[in-house]
Amino acid sequence: MSIKLTDSLKKLLKQTAEQLKGAVRRKFIAQTVMALGQGGQSLAEQELGWNRVTISKGIKELKSGITCVDNYQGRGRYKAEEKLPNLLEDIKKLVDSQSQIDPSFKSQRLYTRLSATEVRHQYSLITVRSLILSG
Fold first, then answer.
1. Backbone angles phi, psi at 107, to 5 degrees
2. Spans of all domains in the chain
3. What is the pLDDT of residue 48?
4. Residue 126 CB: number of other CB atoms within 10 A?
5. pLDDT per position as a tens digit, 87-120
6. Is the pLDDT score of 30 beyond 90?
7. Cβ neighbours of residue 126 closer than 8 Å, sequence gap 6 or more
8. Which residues lie across from 110 on neighbouring strands?
């Protein structure tokens, strides 16, 4: 038995899937695809825009009873401090020579004329020089 997908049913399924996240979403998608019957994966991919990898992962989770744990924390970029442990010290060295106190002496803050772009440029030059000298 296969289910006919009307426009209103497609809209409902898409909206429901968008509101769910992670394993719950995959389980919903897998149950929907299995209810669609033979060719349900292709139909769901074409008509609903669902990813085949997500569909198959959801079906495997549903059949095995084992839920895959998503590692959202493992995504993204590493902190600059982890890649470049001396970054803060190097930037301070660059900026200190260009810094001055507030001319009106109303504040203890130091000001610099270097833009962030210029600091990055000078830092990259220093990094390249140190690589050339060490290599």
1. -140, 155
2. 7-64, 80-134
3. 93
4. 13
5. 888 888 888 888 888 777 787 787 888 888 888 8
6. yes
7. 90, 94
8. 101
Between CA 48 and CA 35 the distance in angstroms is: 14
- Helices 22-36/7-19 angle, 10° precision: 160
Q: Structure tokens of 114? A: 């270097």
Residue 50, pLDDT > 70, answer yes
Q: Percentage of residues in the chain with pLDDT exceeding 90?
A: 37
Residue 6, CA distances (Å) to 13, 38, 111 in order: 11, 17, 64
Two tokens at 37?
């019957």
The closest of 3, 77, 6, 81 to 40, measured between CA atoms, is 3
Check: CB of residue 33 under 8 Å from CB of residue 41: yes
